Amino acid sequence: MNIFKSTRIISTCVVLACMIAAGCSKNFLTEVNPSNRTTDNYYVDATGFESLVTSCYPLLRDIAQQRNLNFQGTDVFAATGWGPIYFKQSNPAGSALDQFDVRLNASLGELQTLWDFLYREINRCNTVVTRAGAVTGMADSLKNVRIGEAKFLRALCYFWAVQQWGDIPMPLVETTSASLEVTKSVQKDVYAQLITDLTDAVSKLPAKQKDLGRATQGAAKFLLARVYLTRGWNFAGALGGTSADFTSSLTLSDQIISSGLYPLETNWNNLWPLHNINPNKETASVTTSVATANASKEVIFAIQYANASSYNGDPSVGTSTVGNDMHGRFGGGPSGVAQQSRTSAYNRNLNSVVCTWAAYRLFDPQLDSRYNGTFNSVSYATAVGSVSLATNKPNPQAVTLNFAVSDTTAIALPWNKPALTAAERGVDIPGGTKKYSVINANEYMGLGYLTGTSTAVVDNLAWGAPMFWKFFQPGIAYGDGFSTFNDPMFRSAEVYLMAAEAIVKGATGAKLGTADVYYNIVLDRALGTANAGKSPQRAAAPENVDDAVTNVVSYRATAANITVDMILDESARELLGEGNQRWYDLKRTGTLLTRAVKYNPWMAYGTGGTPLIATKHLLRPIPQGMLDNSNPRIDQNPGY
Predict the structure, then answer these.
(1) From CA 123, how far away is CA 135, in angstroms rounded?
(2) What is the mean pLDDT of residues 535-539?
(3) 587 membership: H or E segment, kind and range
(4) What is the C-alpha separation between 49 and 127, in angstroms, rounded?
(5) SS3 state at 192
(6) Sign of the four-CA dihedral 84, 88, 93, 94
């Protein structure tokens, strides 16, 4: 069996000769390739080689949309709401990636899917590198650029793989024949190869590319900076890292900043699709809504969804991902009251993850523009409708509410501005006066339960939590994909935060000053001109939703108070849901076992209230398919 499948880009024509046709001379299953094109005679000139390199980009869509492994089981995301835990339901069940129980094993489908996609992409890139020397009719300068692109993409995939699984197979040439023999490379050798590949890519890639979405020198420097930063932490002493890696990461970060090619947007919201909080009043079209965001110079590398069909998803993997699905995967939808069903007004919500309480409580909702840019806390009716409260439990009322289009149906209040009196609440709460539901933060995801009982609450007016609004694009067809927003994998705000982290870890030679200087540049952009320099307040105990709203702490950095944890808080606010990166950030910094258990209720619960996450979970199990299809059988990671 071919473990690393070779890429066959050229379509072959399969002629099925009809057996009942008179004079038919071909067998029913005869395959005919009328163009006589194969990989061996097509990838030999400029035209063929260009199509080969272009074919290395589409799979990034499918890889990036495998989000569960990198967002579930972290401090800011979980697979499902946490009401069952908070309201003490018996034997609540969450995702294996949140609870880390026996279900997290080699048979988990997400592991196999990601593994297969990564190695399929790696072999495409290997094909580019292997065949480049024999290509004719192409200038060496352009050929070198394309080799640089392939090495960048290969390094990106190996970087994801080595962080997930540790010691991994690392083929560096095209696989053209079937083999069951698989050899693992140790992590330090993988990191050494990443640095070699990316250093070469930096030397070959131009500062700008004519085609949007192609790798550039800035993208290669960004990834190299992240690789050095990760190796510097030297996970389990296995990466070959030293303190010098932090300085290397900082140097590259400073080069990206000083290049001037990737300036921070003045307005953080310009990075995201334009949309009206009330979809009934939307004026942006599917095209105009993403025009500014997709053209942002802050974005260093993005997976393309608005460009030509050559960047579409790959039908050969059976998914043919043709659009971005970020808008519907991060939790929340409008209140179910007076909503049109299955329309594009709020589009489709097929949630993979929802925010934890801590994710909301890390923001200052009043000063920090990223709170209202990330979350939509108001739901509006999109159709004429009514709701009866007669069947509510435990507070049935002989009340029927009628809604017109654009009427408010629910408001989810920010954590630090709760409704303190009954009169401030909706009529679904005894003493409430509002026609719409008013939800306090300690009720997010939780109105379906009564404290300490198994009796379900019925509230026909209620809503679960603020919608994750950051990626929403208006005007797209109803469905789980089809968005034309380009997925920003790398942007310069993260460069500043990487630099701050490297300095905290001992990097020297910073061009802008101490770590807090880099950090506060990102923060002040989020606060805006009017609030720049102010000290926004987050909850001092983000995990405790019942804590007093007066128990707060500033998240402005100083040279004296900045820490890795503070930087992780800021990266959560700045980058929430981006880049499939959160699990990697927590693993890199050695905080997965502490922050995730502290802030993710499912991880704290584990089983019966005992957290199950352990050191072994810092590496994923090798997928069962890889184990079964290797001979001799490769070793499973310890503890699985």
Answers:
(1) 18
(2) 98
(3) helix 582-588
(4) 10
(5) helix
(6) positive
Phi and psi (nearest 5°) for 491? -145, 165
Check residue 478 and give its pLDDT. Answer: 84
Q: Residue 148 has which token pair? A: 């640089």
> pLDDT tens digit string along 5-64?
333 333 333 222 333 333 444 443 455 565 667 888 899 999 999 999 999 999 999 999
Q: Quickly list H helices, 278-322.
A: 288-294
Return the pLDDT at 68: 95
- Residues paired with residue 354 on neighbouring β-strands, in sequence order: 78
Identify the pLDDT of residue 14.
28
What is the spatial distance between Cα 320 and Cα 334, in angstroms, rounded to a whole number?
29
- Of 432, 449, 463, which Cα lies nearest the Cα of 339? 463
Query: Do the strands 437-439 and 408-412 form a parallel or antiparallel pair, or are they unpaired?
Result: parallel
Q: What are the residues whose beta carbons fall under 8 Å from the beta carbon of 529, sequence distance 6 or more? A: none
* Residue 424 DSSP class: G
Q: How many Cβ atoms from other residues are within 10 Å of residue 191's Cβ?
A: 25
Give yes or no for a contact between 134 and 66, defined as CB atoms under 8 angstroms apart. no
Q: Tell me which amino acid residue 419 is.
A: A
Q: Which two tokens stand for residue 128?
A: 């580019």
- Domains of the chain in sequence order: 39-263+298-323+484-514+562-628 (1.25.40.390)
Q: pLDDT-based confidence at 96, cuts 50/70/90?
A: very high
Over residues 438-481, the pLDDT tens digits come to 999 988 887 554 544 556 678 899 898 999 999 999 988 887 77
Assess whether the previous peptide bond of 474 is cis (omega < 30° from 0): no
Q: Note if the pTM is more than 0.90.
A: yes
- Per the CB < 8 A criterion, the answer to whether 352 and 465 are in contact is no
DSSP output for 356-412: -HHHHHTS-TTT-HHHHHHEE-EEE-SS-EEEE-TT-BS---S-EEEE-TT-EEEEE
Q: For residues 148 and 14, which has the higher predicted lDDT (pLDDT)?
A: 148
Q: How confident is the model at residue 320 (pLDDT cuts 50, 70, 90)?
A: low
Residue tagged 């001109």 (tokens): 529
Nearest CA among 520, 516, 526 for reference residue 562: 516
Percent of all residues in the chain with a pLDDT value above 70, rounded to a whole number: 91
Instruction: Specify the pLDDT at position 35.
Output: 62
108/115 Cα distance (integer angstroms): 11
Q: CB neighbours of 401 closer than 8 A, spacing ≥ 6? A: 337, 386, 387, 389, 427, 435, 461
pLDDT at residue 13, rounded to an integer: 32
In which residue are the tokens 């090619």 written? 261
Residue with tokens 């609450």: 457
Q: What is the mean pLDDT of residues 66-78?
A: 96
Q: Say which residue, 577 or 331, is predicted with more confidence.
A: 577
Tell me the C-alpha distance between 586 and 592, whole Å. Answer: 5
What's the full length of the chain, in residues?
640
What count of other Cβ atoms lies within 10 Å of the Cβ of residue 77? 30
The interaxial angle of helices 492-504 and 244-259, nearest 10 deg, is: 150
The token duo for 37 is: 């094109």
Distances (CA, A) of 10 to 50, 199, 292: 13, 32, 36
Listing DSSP states for 2-31 in one string gives BSSPPP--S--------TTSTT--S-TT--
